[in-house]
Amino acid sequence: MSNDISGILLELRPIQDKIIKSGTENILDRWEFGKLLVAERGDKKQLPNGMRADIADTFVLEASEITRRMQLADKFKTQTEVEAACTRCGGSWRRIIREELIKRRKDGSPDVNQWVDRVKARLDKMLTEAGESDDRADELVNLLVLSLRTLGYDFKVES
Predict the structure, then answer these.
(1) Residues 6+ apart with CB under 8 A from 30
(2) Is the Cβ–Cβ distance between 33 and 11 less than 8 Å?
(3) Regarding predicted confidence, which is higher, 49 or 116?
(4) Engineering a disulfide at 35: which of 46, 73, 123, 136 sits with its beta carbon 3.0 to 4.6 angstroms away?
């Protein structure tokens, strides 16, 4: 762990301790946590290499929780804005995530098209790699069948 990471972890520790001890949603502290990380990120798209993983390991947080805290800090620049969001969402962290942070279309529904585009890109990459050998192609088919069955689709695969 570099000195840079050690320093940010020292700054984050008291905030995370407050979040844990509060037993409530503690959205303002999540915002403060996110603000420190946004400042650390600067004008780049991501935190420095390895920092998110070190933070997740140190504080036993999911990467998505770290992302949400940073999104909160990105969206709301002042404490007053965060407090207003808390009021709109009844002080619920989950509601703030759902209603304020998740990107939605104008009709209020989640943007499925963005998700579909990401999944298509991943599938295209898998198909390209699977096309390199029959064994890979067979294994990809098996994985896809298993995944579809997990989603409740039951069918027979013809060779």
Answers:
(1) 19, 68, 69, 72, 93
(2) no
(3) 49
(4) 73
